[in-house]
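Fold it.
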Amino acid sequence: MNYKALGRILGKIMILEGGLMLAPLIVGLIYKEPIMNIVGFIIPIVALVGIGFLLQIPKPKRTSLYQKEGFALVAMVWIVMALFGALPFVISNDIEGFTYVDACFEIMSGFTTTGASVIADITQVSHSLLFWRSFSHWIGGMGILVFVLIFIPESNDGSSMHLLRAESPGPQVGKIASKMKVTARILYLIYLCLTVLEVIVLVCGPLIDYEMAAAAGHIVSENDKFFHALLTAFGSAGTGGFGFIPNSMEYFTPFAQYTISIFLLIFGCNFALYYLILLGKIKEVFKSEEFRCYLIVIVTAVAIVFISLMTQYQQYGAAEAFRHTLFQVSSIMTTTGYTTANFDLWPQLAKTVLILLMFGGAMAGSTAGGIKLSRIVIAMKGTMVNIRKLINPRYVPKTKFEGKSLAEKTTNDVFAFITLYLFIILGSVLLLSFDPVNANEGHGFFSNFSASLACISNIGPGFEAVGPYLSYASYNPFSKIILTFVMLMGRLEILPVLILFTPKTWKKV
């Protein structure tokens, strides 16, 4: 194991996180927050930068990384970032009774773009911490190591590719340009431009229905319009979904809700498609099998949920039902977790569709979580190939995706990933069920199942005790730790976390 090389990259990440923490620190100064809120960011910034520079001192003999080292490093980076990123919550003491375990859960939920929260009353939280929570979505959406690849020298030994493959979602990860550094720059430029575009659109139109919020007993300042638009865009771009006012997006205007829905679907697409659009190859976009499947699933899900609401719920008019349907389908499918309504009260058919969307997620190469549509399509095709082979032993199996024949290893990897995914959900449900305290808090099987599914798919809200208008605060510390790691495994797609905690990874060969 190349410890010195790992330490140098980890040190760079720590320095970067310290630099990123300057943004919420500035927000705290702008809003003239109490001294402990300011100190809450200064202490981890100093610690991160100091330790980061110390890790740069040892000079490694070998700068390259093997695949297992790259995978282990990615998981290690995300854990370290969460451990330090949690400190402002504890030091500021904004939230009464908020423990370090709570803080680690909250910020891991942010970095992994999950949006599950253990904060029962969001009105207690300062502007700087609200910014840090939502900003962590934007940081984790595209991937912190993808950002670092822009600046570190590119090697010819595949080290950069190992890091990208470990952090990027999907069954196949490749470059969209000849050099990995150029690929990372293109991805982040597209990401940044789309984020800025959403902020501009939200600021230019009516954002929040302040009278509606006030009538419900929630005072939302009109002076914070730009601040709220920025946090919304952070959550949309990273498909994260942390709420920053009570009831998530319920008090947002129809204009804002439609705008957010559209941008969620945009960020749920493979970013390589936007690069094709920039090159003028628009026809190539619609040739994408996964993109066509993405559109079909969206239209089908919206149609079923809308019909269910109109025929079985009847609490909304047609226009309102369609708006809530489009928003929740967009939010759940892209694993964002923003909500405009308490969908836990919706008819069984509508809830079943949302649960199925939780499994699938959006496209590979997007900022969304979940299994990914590409894997589901490959798994279905691979199953059909195996059935045909059983019927006709002479049949030569060929699983095609995006017009190309897939290697048998790729198909097997997809089956293995889905199997691991389901086992982790079941294992998490079992562990959550061990503690009788959870049962006393109303966490039955379906609550624990939806919590586990929502965390590994990086969605956030589940059903029943962890429904859209509730939080994970009632879980005990042990359960919060379990769900914290489930979120991490979901964001990094399992293998990097397993490799990090496998003893053989650290043994000398």
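Residues 3-267 form one domain.
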